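Page 37, top half.
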Amino acid sequence: MKEVQTLGVLPLGRPTFDVAFAEEKLKAMLDALATSGKTLCGPATLLMDEAATKEGIEQIKAAKPDAVLILQVTFTDAGATMAAASAFDMPLGLWAVPEPRIGGRLRLNAFCGLNLASHALGRAGRPFSWMYTDPQSPDIGSELQALFRGERIVAPMDGVSLSPQTKGSEAVATLGGKRIARIGAHPDGFDTCRYDASKLKELTGIEVEELGLAGLFDTARAMPDEVVQDIRAAAERDLEGLESVNQEELDRSLRLKAALSALKDDGGYDAFAIRCWPETFTEYGGAVCGPVSMMGEARVPCACEADVYGAATQLLLQSVADSPVFLVDMVDMDVADDTGVVWHCGQAPISMADPKSDAQATIHTNRKMPLLYEFGLRPGRVTLMRLSQARGRHVMILAGAEMLERPMAFTGTSGVLRFDRPVSSVLPDIMNSGLEHHMALAYGDHGEALIAAAAALKLPVIRL
């Protein structure tokens, strides 16, 4: 953003997060902008849905600003960002806010919203500037001025193209003929989960079959009670506190595990990509997160939000690592501490649990239903990878890190890690690369094997 005099401000939020806390953050963001010397226009309250966002866009249009700044106060899908990108032919910026790592729920999850937005904008070829900064930081004034001067604009990354080789062909060969069942379509605004089955098959040899959520739910309801009891017994061996959650909702959740296992056997599927919300809660009445943990431990990867490429990524990493994998969101980056946080609702394989603390049965923080697994990830070497469609082409995005022995940052399954490169470099490269919001994680150092696999797949590599 250059020579900005009038700035349109579009504050985004969702009511499933901590609205009171989000309003506090929004006030601090607006206060910081008020001291920047810019004339502000647009809504001063959180825009909680599509209709409110549309009204906000029209309000900003009427003021004819020089640039538009989207305030990513909580997680949202990328729909609102893309609506703004289409509406304004002028510089566009995104500002997301961190939240404290105090062991409770993700109250805002704004970084994940920034991640979705950056991928969608990158895929659309739309330049943007960005910031991930606390509005009460002592450096906020200089950060904002850098944003306005265009110093925080994304710089697209091409990755390193590798010479074709056979070294990684063994792992790649394991993908040929694998089958992913996509159950339900990905949510609107999740460009990160878009896919073309023919392109995926051409790249990897993996086939995708599309199934409906209703069939999964019907299969779950029809599962024999004795099968569900066996699954409950397995969960009781893994978790403390199973008796403390709603038992009817728990039964429905466990039935989803039984149904996924039955579908795997009947259809010959190797992985699933499941539309996990909202219908599992609103139409069926139980969470699929705990069942996803169980399936992952059994080396049948499941990807949230019907993320087919996420499931394919898990299959490749699982083959290379010869161990269970976990599809994570990156939810925080702290430059001062030089750490990041990976998280998901409560679905990591139980073998990834820190043995120094008991894994707990819990409920979904937003939807309030079981079953979710809750534990901190154990310390150790980890590898993160994504078969990415960033900026409309295939690339492998790869990172190595050390999972640290730290208190749980957020509820669910989460871990604090230190990347091989400083967070001050990793964070901008996440934006510059156009990385999706899901990466697969496995324990161990598998970077060189994955680079060999990328060469066999003829994929350029971006190392975070």
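Page 37, bottom half:
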Amino acid sequence: MRTRTLPLAALLLTSLVSLTSLTACGAQVTDAKPDAKPSGDSHYPVTITNCGEKQTYTKAPQRVVTNDVGITEIMFALGLEKHMAGFVMPDDKGDLTSVPWKDGYTKTKWLSKKQINKEMALDARADLVFAGWNYGFNEGEGFTPPDLKKVGIGSYLLSESCRNGTNAQSRGVMPPLDALYTDLRNLGRVFAVEDRAESLITKFRKQVADAESKALKGADRPRVFLYDAGTDKPFTSGLYAAPHDIITRAGGDHVMKDLKDSWATVGWETVVERDPEVIVINNYGDTTAAQKRAFLKSYAPLKNVSAIKNDRIVVLDYAELVESPRNPEAIASLAANLRKLMGK
């Protein structure tokens, strides 16, 4: 690129004006706006807000360890494989070879298929662990951000998992898609890839808008229940987990939208009372989607539930139903399924 040389007098005048401006404001550049990017040529330091806590980064982390598939794929979608020491997750999260960022899995070390712990992070020489409450972080296991801080390792919490203060374990502080966009923006700033983050957000918003434009509306919207696991009591999604936005944006009425949590256990009597017209199965774990379907269809208390009587059951993969870059495509997929199932 060609550059233009300024006369010496102009350069001196420019320097004097810059110096005067800095002196006038006391050089408090980073205080001009909360979480604002510092002015000047340097990207760092940057300050973000993560689950209500301010975090300041003086440089981009270079050895990030991620936990679980959705969190790992957020890093891959942002093109941050070179900043990762590896990822931890079991091998029950479905096909990893057909996603747009599949190269991330070949370029990044799979550290363990067991539950993440402090020793894994230390062995990987991690400088940051990207996980979430109940997505790796858990007081009962002695693996929390304060525990990592004691050994010099930073933490970034998945926004879907932020605790909301309703009770000790309740999670969720914002709509699920907003949580995804928040994490993309935050990490875009932390790793100096803001343009890439904004490009993804724009793409995802368009995908969601396109799906919504074709989704069922008004009285045609079916009541939908998300079945994760459990026989005595079902584990399901509340207001703050990704399935809420996936179901709602896809043209469904989420029957657990009044549950102010992300993922939680409810009673079968609640499911029966709310009579879902469609059930979405979360496909992962030792119990297959086919086995979950067979249980739902054979479980006597559900025999008069509309979804069971009319055999309206949809299967989505775990990685589509936790906060991840797969959420927008899941909305489009579910919207098509709901239209088909409801004959619209």
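Margin note: Residues 203 and 328 are 9 Å apart (CA to CA).
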